[in-house]
Structures are given as structure tokens and as C-alpha cells.
# Entry
Amino acid sequence: MTLWRSLRALQVYGANTDVGKTIVSTILCRSIQRQNQRAAFLKPVSTGDLSEADDGHLRRFGAGTVTRCLYQFDEPVSPHLAVNEDINDDTLLRRISSTLSDWHSTGINLSLVETAGGVHSPGPNGNSQADLYRPLRLPIVLIADSRLGGISSSISAYESLVLRGYDVQSVLLFRDDYYQNHRYLRDYFERKNISLRPLPGPPGREESAARDEENMDRYYEGVARGDDIASLLEEMGEKHKERLERLDGMADRAHELVWYPFTQHQGMTAKDIGVIDSAYGDNFQVYSKSDAQNEQLRPAFDGSASWWTQGLGHGNPDLSLSAAYAAGRYGHVMFAGNVHEPALQLAERLLQTLDNPRLQKVFYTDNGSTGMEVAVKMGLRAASVRYGWDARQDSIQILGLKGSYHGDTMGVMDCSEPSTYNQKVEWYRGRGYWFDFPLVTMVNGVWKVQMGGLGDVLGSDLEFSSLQAVFDLDARVRSEAAQRYREFIHRSIQEQVQRGVKFGALILEPVLLGAGGMLFCDPLFQRCLVDVVRSQPELFHPTAQQSDGWSGLPVIFDEVFTGLHRLGRRTAASFLGVHPDITVNAKLLTGGLVPLCTTLASKEIFDVFSSPEKSDALLHGHSYTAHAVGCQVAVDTLQTMATMERGGFWEAYRRGWQEAGAVDQGQDQIVWSLWSPDLVTDLSRVESVEGIFALGTVLSISLRDAAGGGYTSTAAKGLQQKLSAANVHSRVLGNVLYLMASLTTQPASLRALEDLLRRSLA
Amino acid sequence: MTLWRSLRALQVYGANTDVGKTIVSTILCRSIQRQNQRAAFLKPVSTGDLSEADDGHLRRFGAGTVTRCLYQFDEPVSPHLAVNEDINDDTLLRRISSTLSDWHSTGINLSLVETAGGVHSPGPNGNSQADLYRPLRLPIVLIADSRLGGISSSISAYESLVLRGYDVQSVLLFRDDYYQNHRYLRDYFERKNISLRPLPGPPGREESAARDEENMDRYYEGVARGDDIASLLEEMGEKHKERLERLDGMADRAHELVWYPFTQHQGMTAKDIGVIDSAYGDNFQVYSKSDAQNEQLRPAFDGSASWWTQGLGHGNPDLSLSAAYAAGRYGHVMFAGNVHEPALQLAERLLQTLDNPRLQKVFYTDNGSTGMEVAVKMGLRAASVRYGWDARQDSIQILGLKGSYHGDTMGVMDCSEPSTYNQKVEWYRGRGYWFDFPLVTMVNGVWKVQMGGLGDVLGSDLEFSSLQAVFDLDARVRSEAAQRYREFIHRSIQEQVQRGVKFGALILEPVLLGAGGMLFCDPLFQRCLVDVVRSQPELFHPTAQQSDGWSGLPVIFDEVFTGLHRLGRRTAASFLGVHPDITVNAKLLTGGLVPLCTTLASKEIFDVFSSPEKSDALLHGHSYTAHAVGCQVAVDTLQTMATMERGGFWEAYRRGWQEAGAVDQGQDQIVWSLWSPDLVTDLSRVESVEGIFALGTVLSISLRDAAGGGYTSTAAKGLQQKLSAANVHSRVLGNVLYLMASLTTQPASLRALEDLLRRSLA
# Structure
């Protein structure tokens, strides 16, 4: 939202206060005006005596530079102390953005947005300017410090900017031939490919204001006429041009060089590729070259939470610093036989977070797919050993649900039934039995459990007064429906086993089957499935006994997508009232920053791998197992989530759903979503909507499709296009369009999205 | 190397110059002396007038504090300008360390090591103090800046320290009631769990030196007597105790909670777990509580390059900043349908680096195992489509070498022959035919190609005048041995195909088979294997024609371990003179920081997945595909490697091997290692050594084992223990002990390691 073709908008940061930001700005503006280009200077927030204000200085010496100050306060202290009115950060950013936009439309070529003090000097609301202005991410002119100590403060200021994802374009400072900071810093920044220009220092102050002004004018004229500044301005122009050229070409280059995940490239053109210049909070900044006259970057809401990974916002400076800390303290250190603080802390914190007394051991891998490979290896071994099966002779199978998805490595592909996803994978051999299951959805204002093709055996569809009631499993396990579920499950397993099938593990994605199409399984069905497996172990082996440990089959929960507050709770298992024997977490685990996965298991399963034989061990491990960067970021993510939970960060949403719910169950048991119950109810009544649900951060809308839905359906495309036109980036799964918020998405953003959905579906 | 039980050694950094570091140090030292504990103050490098020197100030006002200055220069400028003698950074660190050690042994309780200027003020050799002192990684007392602009400079200084992996323990600053920086900063640091103490400012200077001294003395006495300082010192003591207690308990906790990769836990105790407090360059800092009287941290050389990942040193500040930049600019943004600069730049740079005209498309995954899964999916599909095979009916197989290893996900496990690694994996089904092959090794001073069990068909062992000669494939392809290799390969494939085996891909780890036991394959054999597959495609299908694209079988090179300078060249393929159709890179790709993998393929193979059907696409993708942090770090890693290569960074090693080699082949073709040819020759003559080789960063020593070697051999354990006692952390694979350097390992470290090896094997 801050990039134009004909206007170069830059932000001026100082390495410290009093390093001459305004003087340098004046030099730049004056010089470019000399080249018959037009300059403008914006001081968003100014403090101190008006007669000394920076925009006034620019007006006086800027040779016609347009100037503006958005907020002026008299006291010469940091804005967070001086401000005596309510300045909303978003409003401030919008005003800067619209000022620049106005300037662009009036033909300004260069505009400088000057900050106050140093990079971290607080803005009007007390947060660091480097954070405050980050959504704009203007290229930066850094004014370095030429005084004693200035090498250090300049480099630190630079680092603070870099770790927020800013691009520092040029560095300027006054030449001081005694301290020679400019020499040191020139070499330093040259290594970073950033050019530095030392400038002559301004003249000393004179008693007489007139003389002072005259001196300054002469100074400016001298510097502005110099080759150094002319060449710098030329270079800045070149960089701007190069940036736009690169952005222009990126989609083409990507189309040429990149083999995209999960993408059919035939028919795909460069136009189908989004060029993401940066991202912040919930938004991508997407480049669009369509209209050369307008802004070249537009914010787009990341409505898939970047494939379900985002939780604490893009470009989160705390996570950025966490990652940097771990990188600086360790890099990566090999984990076999060693331990380091981030890995240990993460193990401790995860066990505490998941609060499942069965889980005692933490195994690290890199992503959900590898973590599930490990879970499967654990589960199959435990069952094979207990039941005395020879896996080389017998094919040990998985028990699961249809539409499950556990990743793309071939081992875990085999855990799902044949589908479009694995149809053409040469080595795919589905190894399991997968249940059909009843689905939860709201239809026409009513929460329903739909039996689908299972109506004959499971009875007619169920209706509920609220989503809360659907999850009231303590009551529902005693219902007739539960009885029918259990009988059906028991019978089905028995049939398979009688045919000779040997099952090695039960694998479930609790509550929500994501990649399979955002299928919201009746939690009672999953609960009954676990209950049957555990209470009737003899189903799986004639000698099997019920046990307090794993019983019947090891129960593996794939919470890669559903865990860690994605559905509004720390675990999805808690919705079922079930403690799995093995749990896999990823995605949100690192707050949406880097790949990392954990597979947690019970001591009993761990012990199966313990023997005097090396070959009995779990011989699995990736080189970057428990990499410090991922672990540290995950520790800080879990800590942040815990703080948010304790602090009642989501209280308003919870209350909204509590009021809409009919069941009183005490605080912890509330079923809620960031999406409002009204929205869900209203949309469920829309003609083109087949069904809808919301849970935690997830909103899922099934559109009517005459052809029947499924992964290849195009029914949701129309809605997706409408959202896209309104700068909301969404993903569809067949006839299902889903939107996913972060844990930190602002209520205002959610309201805007809800309005958009209402309009788009009206 | 800087942690003792009874001595708390801290480093004092200033947010800027002139913030009162020495005054605060004096307060702390004086206060602790008041508590009948002993303080010491170390100024490693002092500049400026001796009468104003900081250690002098401490002596005058520190109430008996022991003081020392290591280097004193008169000019009051930054040390890098003042220094007029040669101060080696390592020497400086060693002197600090030994001073602290002396103080520890004389019963000092608190010692402060004071820096000069701000955190990045240059040390005597011009590099930032924050970098210079990083190997010590002392806990930090940060003196914040109470002046206007001080909020910013204090936070930036803090961030610069954090991104180098320092722990800031306390923050102190002078109270200024006008600017109130202490309030803002107290809240800021409270959120980081760091306590901040504001102190009353020192008295103004007086004309009379005696009065001045009296004032200061009164000032110090007042502050030192205050509760604030007493409680801070108590808190510092607590933190020191907690740190030691945590370190004491970490191995136990890890033993309790962590399920280690590739580890048989039976018989393992907490004592077997290395507690890694931090890492820098080539060294871990390992905690050892064995002897409470001595230093608690000892450096240990990371001799496995942390499972083959390290290339640019642990805790590399440039990579740390790269990671932070990408995290700050993007976090992670979903890659399907989008592109961002780091991912595109990496694709461009990789294609350029690998310089293989066949490769045109880049697919991203998270680690070598997932990247190989993708490669296998690509290869099998291409072959099945070309040869019209129905993979659901036919079992398509891999052609490879015995001892290959491609990762731990079950799909790629199936690409290796049955072995200890996969023996107990329930779903493992080896799908392939794997050749035995001749091995390269130096025995008793002579480079040999040993035919092993293949002597009957491949002829007798070969001898070479140099390692260079082994790799002279242009000559060797015309040899009789090559003819025998090709005949053997052709015959073996023909036999398999005649038995009905369908092959879908040839997979090789070029030159060196790592996980299989550091097996150095005769490059001529691998070259012949590729040549036979490509030149005689009719072997694999009766209608197959030779082609300029992939011919016979898609050739997949697994360069996860061997690529990107691990063996001294950008690609291992270049040793064979072969351009694979698919190449997989990981490990060194990110300079040893975070997981990331690339699978590069030809356009022809990419096109096989192109169709109007979504289901024909390569439906593979992990959530963090092409995560910005990994891609950015990889871009900067490749850039650094290219700069090193161009700059002749390894020239001395290359020359050493060139002199030892007998074949003149022009610069680019030199076969060389960081390990010296003399070492290899000398150790090859040692009785207990069966064979040895070195290539690039890898040194591999096979020890004689009466029982025959293999993964379960214990022959190398003795040598491993000797190295361990000398603080070298190494890994063994059966009877093979290998050491792996980084690309940046210093010659002095290598010499020390070589000496140690000579002594240990003598």
C-alpha cells in the first residue's frame, strides 16, 4: 500500500536522536528539486517548539518542498509523553498512506516520511516506531551517528530495522574526521550492499537568526550541488526502478522456475501467481502491476492462515527475535545424544500444555508428515510386539476415518483411503479400513448431525439447540445414537478382523478433518470409536486384555492442524474427552514461522523400543531434529498462547457463543469461535449455502454443487473470486470455502470479513 | 569456558558510549564488597588518558575491588583506531578467560568484564565487541541510556545482543525524571523477564579534584547502601544459582522426557547426554558438572558438523540476521500459488550454483527425506508414463547401490536394501535392486580401489598414484576396468529385467554414501552405471529409445549430504562428470541453521505431471513449503560460499593436495580436502587403521575389526573415547570414525585435530 511507480516514498530513521535527520531530509529534498523533480516531506508526529519544527525547517530550506505534519505537540520530549489526544495507530498509518497517495496523484517524485528520535523511540501510543510503521514497510534512509559511540548505535539501529524485515536502502551521516565513523560504517554497509554517503556537517549555530539562516542556506546549497548527493539520488532512483522491475518479473520468473506444491501447472499462467512483497499481521502485501497509475501493493487478508500455520501474525517481531536469539546462541546443534535449552523447554512446556497424563516422551521431527510417520512407526511396533505379529509376513493395517489426511510422505499416505490425492502415486498402497462417519453442520439455522449414507444403520439425522449441545458428550454417550454408533463400529471392526485384517493403530484427526475437505465429524462418533477400541481389545487379538495403558490399539491423534488453539482449545482431544496414546503437533506450534513437529507418546510405547539391540530402537531422525530456532520459537509461541488464554484474550468471543448456547457447562467447556454465531446462523439460511460451521479460528462454508462436491468440485470458485476481488485470499477444498483467522486477528478485521461474506453470499 | 560455581562473571555492555558503565560497575563492586564478598573488575581494552582509566576509577572507589586492564592505549577514541600493537582476538579472549579463572581460584565472587563504548563499538581488530566477545557468552549487565533518544538506543543495543545469543541478565540506568526512560524501559524489560534498576545519577563535576572525589565517594556510598542494589545483587546471585541448577538437572530431565533420534535408550543414562549450553564457530560449549571447583563449561569440537549440517559456523551472526530479516518481512507465507523474494532468489541461485543444464524446476520441502520422497515420486511417474506401466498392478523398483540411505520416511526407506536401519520397520518393503560396488580407500600409503567380493567379475584391486588419479574419469572410462564395470552392470540389470523387474529410477549418492557407513564408491563405477542406464535404455523397456532428455531411467542424485562444498565442490555430480535429471539438496543448504530441502528436476520430468487433470499434478506440499526464513538463510549461505570460492578461501588446501597429486588437470578439477594429504598418508600406515580417506571437509577412518565391521561394530569406540577426552565430539558408524569440518574451520583447529589424531592412533 506504499509503492508507486512515479513516487519514491522513503522513511527516514535516525540511529539516534539528534543525528541530523531533518538536515539530511532537507538536503535530499532540496537536491531533487534542483533536478526539476518535486519533493515532499511528511512528519507524522512532531514534538517540541513549533518554530523549531522539522516541517517548518523543510519549508524554509527545502526550495519549494511540499511539507506536512499530521500531529504537532509542543513539549520537546518523546511523543508517547507529549501526546495529549487520542491517536490511533491505524488512523495514523492510514493518514500517512493517504497523504502519500495524494502526493503521488499531484506528481510528487520523492517523499520522505521522517520519524522522531531513534528507530525505537516510542510513537504516540508508546510502541516503538519501528513496530508502529512496519505495516508500511517503506524503504529506509538511515541517518547514522557520527559521534563517539555512533558506530555502535548505527549498527544496532540497522539491526533493529532488519529484524523487522525493513530494507535499508541508503545510509547517510555527517563526516567527522576525528572519529571517522563514516569510514568504518562505509565498509560495514558495503558488505551489506548498502551505499553510505558521508556529508559535510552543518555550520555551527550563530547568535543572529538571520546569519544562522544565511549560513544554513549556504550550507544546503553547497551540499545539494555536490556530486555525492546527485549520485545518491540517481542511485535511489535506480533502486526504485530495479525494485519495480523485479516485482514486474517475479511472477514470470516463478512460473518459469518453480514447481509448486499441490498445483496442476497446465493452464496456469504467471498471472495466477501472487507476488508477495511482504506480510504483516493478517495481511499479505501483494504486488499488482495491473494499473501503473495506482498503488502497486495492496494488502490481502491471509484467509487460509497460510495453509493453517499462522497464529500470532506475520512478521511478528517477538518471534523474529526469538528465532534470531536461538540462531545466535546455537545455530543448530546435533540432537542425538545431546540436549539444549530450547528443546528441553519445549518438551516440558508441551507436556504441560497438552495436559494428557498418558504422554511422557517427546520425539522431534520437521513437519506433520514426518511426525505422523514416526507416530505410525510407534503404533505399529507396539501392536506388533504385543500381539506377536511378524510384520514381514502380515500386512498390519490402520483403522481410521474416510477423508483423513496425514501428509504427503508415502508412509503416511498409506494411512488414508484411495483418493484423488494418492491415486497417481506409484507406490501408494492404502493399508487400512476407514469408516464413513456422521457430519456436524448448521443447516438453515439448525445444528445438525447428518448421517449421510449411514442413515440405515445409525438412524435419522440429529438436531441440536446449539453447537455446545453437540459437544455435550457426557450426556450424549448415554444416548441411543451412541449405542447405535458403538454397535456399528464394533460390528464393522469385527467383520474386518474376521476377514483376517490385523489392525496396528487407530488414527484420528479429532473433530475436524482438514485436508479431506474441512469435514466436521460428530465428536460422539470419534469418542465411541476410541471407546470401542479401548474397551473391547479382544476385537483385535484373541488374547488381548483391557489395560490402563494402551488398550486394543494405540490411539494416535493427528492434531497437526487442529491442536494448539486452532479450534479454540489447547487440544482438539479435549473436545472428545479422550487422552490419546500418541499425539502429533505442528503448524501453529512455531506460531507460523518455521517447520517443526513433535510426536508425543506414552512411556509404555517408548518402552517397546527399549532393548539391548540397537536395531530395536526407533531408528528415525532428521539432521535438523529439534533445531534450536524452531524449538525456541515454539517455546515462545506456547508461552504467548498461555498468556493470552490466562489473560482472557478471547473472552468476548467466548461470551458471544455462551450467550448463543443453551448448555451451561462452566467456563472451560465452552465451545466458541472467533466468527460470530449470528454470522453462522444467517449464512446457513442463504440459498446457495448447503451447510456451514465455525469452531475456534475456522469458518467453513459448503456451497451447493449439483454435481455432488468433492475435491474436484468448482462450486466454491465463485465465492472465492468475490472475496479475492475484495482482497481476501482464501483457499477452497472442492465445494468448501473456508476462512481461517489467526489467534490475534482484530475484531474489526473479523467484522469486515463477516460483512464481506454476507454481501458476497446475498 | 566461562562458568564457575563460586564466581559470577558478567560482562558490562553500554547502550551507548558515556552511559555510565564504569560508575555502575563501581556501584556493583562496592556494594558486593560491603556484603563481605569479593569483587574484581576487568577492562580488557582501555583507551584514553590513563588518569581517567576505568580500572583506576574502580581502584579509587571500588572499596578494595581487584582490577585489571589487559591493554591500555592513550588516545580517547575507539580501540580500533587507538591500537598500535598487534592484538589477536583469540589471544585477547584467552587472556580474559585466564584472568577470570585466576580470580576464581583466588576466591573472587563477582567479576565484571567491562566493554568500551556501545555494544557494537569496534574492538582492537575492528570487529564489533558483541561479535568479538561472543565465544565467552558471559551473562550481560546492560547499562541503558537515560538521555533523550535513550529508549531507542537501549532497545536496539539489547536486540543486537539477543540476536547473537547473549542472555541479558539485568538492565541498569540513571534515573532522569524528565525523560523518564527508566519507566518505559522497566515495562519493556519486564515483559522480557529482565529486571531493570534505575539509579540516582552521579553528582556533577566540580573544579576541585578533591571535592570531586569526595562527592563521588559520598554518591557511591549512598547508592551502595541502598536496598535497590542489595536486592539486585541478591537477584543476580539467584539467577546464577538457578542457571547452575538448571544445567545440573538438564541431562536428567532430557533423559526423562526426550525420545532421541536414532538412539537405543536401554542402558543409556543421563550421563550419556551432553548438555550444550551454546555453540560458536566449530565448538559446542558443553556443561560438565563433574568437578564443582573448575570451569563448568568446556568447548568441544563439533566433529560430526552436527550431523553433517554445519558449514559456516555455529552462532553465525550473519545467518542469524538473515533469519530474523525473513521472519520480520514475511514470517511464513503460503507458497502454493504465491512467490516471495527469498524463494525465487534461492531457485535462481541454486540453478546457477549447480550449473546443470538439465535442471530447470525447483520443488521445495523440509528435509532430505521429504525431498527424496518427492524425487522418487517424480522419477517413478516419469518412467511409468513413458513405459506405459500400471503402477497399481506392477511393483516399480529402484536401481541403486548397497549401503545407500535416503532418509527415514517410509517411502524412501523402501529405496534402500534391507538393513539394520529398516529391519524392524513394520511397513518396510525394499523395492529395488542394489549393486555391490568397489570402494576407494588409502591403505598403507597407497590409494586403492578395492573390489571386495566383486573381484571375480571386476578383476583385481587397482592402485593409484594419487587421489586425483582416481578421479581422472576422462582417462579411466577408457580403461579395461571400466569395460568390466559396464559389462557387469549391463548383465546384472538384464538379469533382473528378465526376471520381470520393472525399474523406475536410478538413485545414487554420488561419490560418498554417508549414512551407509561413509562408503567412498569408486567414481568410475557410478559413472559407468549412469552411462549404461542412459546409453542402453532398451534394457528397461523394449521400445525405449536413447534420448537427450532422460534416457533409460530418470537419474536421481541424492546430494543431501555430499552437495554444496561438503566434498570441496559445489556438486558431487561434478566428480562423476554426470548431469542427473533430478537432484536433491539439504543440510548445508541453510548453512547449518534450519531444515530446508530442494528437489530440482528437468523440464521434461515436470511436464509429465502437466495435464488437464488435477490428479495428475504432483500433489505434494508441506505447510511450511519454501518458508521464508529457510530460503533467505539459504540464499545468503550460497552467496557466502560463492564469495569464498571466488576469493580463493580454500586455496591453501587445494595447493597442498595439488602438490601431493600427480595429475595436472587445471584448477577446477583439483580433488582436495581440508585435511592434509600427509595426515591421510601417515594414518593409513597405522596398524589399527584398515583404510582411510579424505575429501573436502570429510575425513573417514576405518578401524580394523576382527568381527568384520558394519553398523553394529564397536571397533571405532576406543578412538572415539580418546577424542572425546580431548574435547572432540565425533560420531562413529560401526567401525568407521569420521570427522567433518565446516567450510570455515580455521587451519589452526585442523592442525590441532590432526595432531590429536596422530597421538590417539599412535
Chain A touches chain B through 168 residues (CB under 8 Å). The mean pLDDT of chain A is 94. The two ends of chain A are 29 Å apart (CA to CA).
